[in-house]
Amino acid sequence: MIESGLSDLITGDEQRGIQAAMAIAYPSNRCPTSRRSSGFVLWEIMLALTIFSIVAVSLASALYQTVDASIMLRDASQVRIELQNILAEATTQKLKVGKSDVQEGDGRIAYEREVRSVVAKTAKGDPVLNLYKIVVRAYWRSAGQDRSEQADVIVYQP
Amino acid sequence: MRQSSGRGRAGYLLLEVLLALAVLSIVVVMIFQIIQTTVKVTTDIDFLQIQQRKVDGICELMRRNFDSMPASCLFETRGTAGSTQLVFRDAPFNFTWAKAGPSYGTVIIAARPQANGRIALSVLQEPGDSSSSPTLGDDDKKALWFPLLSNIEQINWRFFSQQNGKWTSDWPNSQSKPNLVELTLKLAGRSHTDRCIFRWPIAQTGT
After folding, report:
1. Residues A141, A63: one domain?
2. Which residue of A lies nearest to B47 if distances are taken between CA atoms?
3. Is B41 in the A-facing interface, judged by CB distances under 8 Å?
4. Closest chain A residue to the Cα of B31, Cα to Cα
5. Within a domain: A110
6. Handedness of CA A135, A140, A142, A147 (dihedral sign)
């Protein structure tokens, strides 16, 4: 249209100059001077795909994090109950100073029990014997990180 | 796409419109599926967290119940209709939330059938001492049972005696108390069983 509308007003050199400028301004096949049908250029398609990919990855990531958080909460709750169970059972057993492994659950969480002798004195300064501190630790891996939890209790076992 | 026709009218070809609609449909379906999956997973997680909170709550409640039992309390179990009833006589009413003040009597904890075929862990509290409640847990007291935890598929109690070092499934002797009480239960919709062990404080068991 520019060509036909201005052809009688401008010279041939000026027409060529205008065409060169249009070619720079519209580098793709969407140049209005072209008779070919226009479409989306590669960078437009890639931009759309990139935006869609970012949205999809964000949603998938959010879903993954939700599942991870749920597993972490479940593990923490299970560990808390198991630590209390192990401590309760330990109080009824004959205690020996030292460390030992405890088998609980499906084996995904490792439990360790440590019994220490506690040195305590009465108000008069007399030593109090047969006091033990039971420490139970749990080690497990959740959401790609190593986690641990522990609980302890002091018992008197004459 | 913007190819002009001979009459000077520009527009999209039918093929282009159909292609665009197809691509748009695929993208919309994909996004819808992602959102649907997210909502479903979130709902499932919410359900499991509620179940976990129920288990945590009942374990803590039972633990405090055993911790607060006085030395004068008498304990025994009764087997009725395939389930075990825990009977605490001369026990405080730990499961009372009314503002009536502290009271004591006989407390029964038992698994009772629900209408949907599952089990509800329930409690019955009757005032008075052990000699004044001979008809405990009768069917005419259905309305007095208070459910603590419902929709249980399996429940099991075990009792540990430090004297013989064994776990037993019942405790018929009310003259002594178990050192440990184990509760194993499986809630409906939960993939694994939960196990809680409650310690009866040594000073109160007399062992």
Report:
1. yes
2. A70
3. yes
4. A56
5. yes
6. positive
